[in-house]
Structure formats: structure tokens, C-alpha cells
From TrEMBL:
<feature type="binding site">
    <location>
        <position position="80"/>
    </location>
    <ligand>
        <name>S-adenosyl-L-methionine</name>
    </ligand>
</feature>
<dbReference type="InterPro" id="IPR003682">
    <property type="entry name" value="rRNA_ssu_MeTfrase_G"/>
</dbReference>
<protein>
    <recommendedName>
        <fullName>Ribosomal RNA small subunit methyltransferase G</fullName>
        <ecNumber>2.1.1.170</ecNumber>
    </recommendedName>
</protein>
<dbReference type="GO" id="GO:0005829">
    <property type="term" value="C:cytosol"/>
</dbReference>
<comment type="function">
    <text>Specifically methylates the N7 position of guanine in position 527 of 16S rRNA.</text>
</comment>
<feature type="binding site">
    <location>
        <position position="85"/>
    </location>
    <ligand>
        <name>S-adenosyl-L-methionine</name>
    </ligand>
</feature>
<keyword id="KW-0698">rRNA processing</keyword>
<feature type="binding site">
    <location>
        <begin position="131"/>
        <end position="132"/>
    </location>
    <ligand>
        <name>S-adenosyl-L-methionine</name>
    </ligand>
</feature>
<comment type="similarity">
    <text>Belongs to the methyltransferase superfamily. RNA methyltransferase RsmG family.</text>
</comment>
<keyword id="KW-0963">Cytoplasm</keyword>
<keyword id="KW-0949">S-adenosyl-L-methionine</keyword>
<dbReference type="InterPro" id="IPR029063">
    <property type="entry name" value="SAM-dependent_MTases_sf"/>
</dbReference>
<feature type="binding site">
    <location>
        <position position="148"/>
    </location>
    <ligand>
        <name>S-adenosyl-L-methionine</name>
    </ligand>
</feature>
<keyword id="KW-0489">Methyltransferase</keyword>
<dbReference type="Pfam" id="PF02527">
    <property type="entry name" value="GidB"/>
</dbReference>
<dbReference type="GO" id="GO:0070043">
    <property type="term" value="F:rRNA (guanine-N7-)-methyltransferase activity"/>
</dbReference>
<keyword id="KW-0808">Transferase</keyword>
Length: 223
């Protein structure tokens, strides 16, 4: 299947992937397809072109994330990780980044733990818990939050805010409907830092990555 990934244009993303990277991505796709037949991890079925395209869709965010994330070992939360997109491909390609995968559905976290062990991804932590609970337990500890098809943008930002450090970033993977969703965002609380179209090779699908940061509220002095 490595040839399939290459044919789909994974090399066109400019990520300088090595054979080991490609092999691990292959294993991830194979295991997702195998588990999906029994556990219904995702609506995507089998080891189809769709799965591969969704994987490429997920790692297309990496050049942007590399540009914005400072420090050698950022701590990133993936909300509603599901079958591991985008967190698992990111963890494979960025072994120095630390990712916390938050997923409330136990059959999905079982798969995430399985793939963590199979690929020896020591840079990820899997939490079988609701995001709201993790936000209380790990308030203000993450450098960044990311999600793919988890919820609408305004709700995603609401859930992300308590998890983030003061200068933290939100990476929201969106489609052409991003403009509609931005209309519901409280711009007194959030700053849109970047709105970047993502190039997905050999597709006409529109993808955008929104990068947002919470606005610091200055304390009001009492008279």
C-alpha cells in the first residue's frame, strides 16, 4: 500500500517522509480498516481510497503547525480523536511532539491504545474521557489544541479554551463552510491568526486550516 500512498500524492506535501514513516502510516491504515470492520470506528469503510485521502488530509496540516508551534516539544491535545485522525499521523511524523488524544467512546480508545503499542508511539497519551472532564483535570497545560470533524467551530473553541496555556493556539480543520462557522465565534474572546487553504493532492475537495488564539482580557481596575 506504500505505492498507493505515494500515488495519492503524499510526497507532494513536502514533508520529506522516509520509508519508516510510510511503513508506519501503512500499518495505521491497515489496522484502522481491520478494526473498523468490527468496531465501526469511523464511517469510512475498509482500506479504501477514502481512508488514504483522509490520512493525507490530516497530515496536510503539518507544514502550518510547524510554522506556528514554538519550542522543541509542544504539548498538543486532539479533541474527539475517534479513529486517530489527525493525531496518529502527526505523532508518527513528529516524534518529538507530545500528543494527548481525548476520546470518550471506549471502543475507539481501545483502538488508539492498540495502535500506540503496535507502532511504539511513546509520544502519545490516550484518555478515555469527555473533553469537559479533562479540561478540569488539566487546565491550562496545552500549547495547542487540534480537532478534525469533532464539532462546530464555536463549540470547539469553547471546549479548547480551558485546556490552553495563555498563549496557546487552536488549529481548526475546516471545509469551505468555515466562513459560516466563524460568524458564531466570539471575536472579543478569540483572534483569528491565520486562515490557510490546504492543498490535498489529486482532489478538488476544499480544506482550510484556521489558526486562532484566545485574546488576553486585561483585568478591570475597580474605582
Amino acid at each position: 500500500m506504500s505505492e498507493g500512498l505515494i500515488a495519492l500524492g503524499i510526497e507532494d506535501l513536502g514533508l520529506n517522509l522516509g520509508p519508516e514513516n510510510i511503513a508506519d502510516l501503512d500499518i495505521f491504515l491497515h489496522e484502522m480498516g481491520r478494526w473498523n470492520q468490527v468496531h465501526n470506528l469511523t464511517a469510512i469503510e475498509g482500506e479504501s481510497e477514502s481512508i488514504k485521502l483522509h490520512l493525507i488530509d490530516s497530515i496536510a496540516v503539518l507544514p502550518v503547525m510547524r510554522r506556528f508551534l514554538e519550542g522543541p516539544n509542544p504539548l498538543i491535545a486532539d479533541l474527539g480523536s475517534g479513529g486517530g485522525l489527525p493525531a496518529i499521523p502527526i505523532a508518527i511524523l513528529q516524534p518529538e511532539w507530545r500528543l494527548t488524544l481525548i476520546e470518550a467512546v471506549r471502543k475507539k480508545t481501545a483502538f488508539l491504545q492498540h495502535i500506540r503499542g503496535k507502532l511504539k508511539l511513546h509520544n502519545i497519551t490516550v484518555l478515555s474521557e469527555r473533553v469537559e472532564v479533562v479540561a478540569v483535570q488539566q487546565s491550562g497545560v496545552f500549547d495547542a489544541v487540534i480537532s478534525r470533524a469533532f464539532t462546530n467551530l464555536a463549540r470547539f473553541l469553547e471546549l479548547s479554551l480551558p485546556l490552553l496555556k495563555p498563549n496557546g493556539l487552536v488549529f481548526a480543520m475546516k471545509s469551505k463552510r468555515a466562513d459560516e462557522e466563524m460568524q458564531d465565534v466570539n471575536l472579543s474572546q478569540w483572534q483569528l491568526i491565520a486562515d490557510i487553504p490546504l492543498h490535498i493532492p489529486h482532489t478538488t475537495v476544499e480544506r482550510r486550516l484556521l489558526v486562532l488564539s484566545p485574546i488576553k482580557i486585561s483585568p478591570t481596575l475597580s474605582e
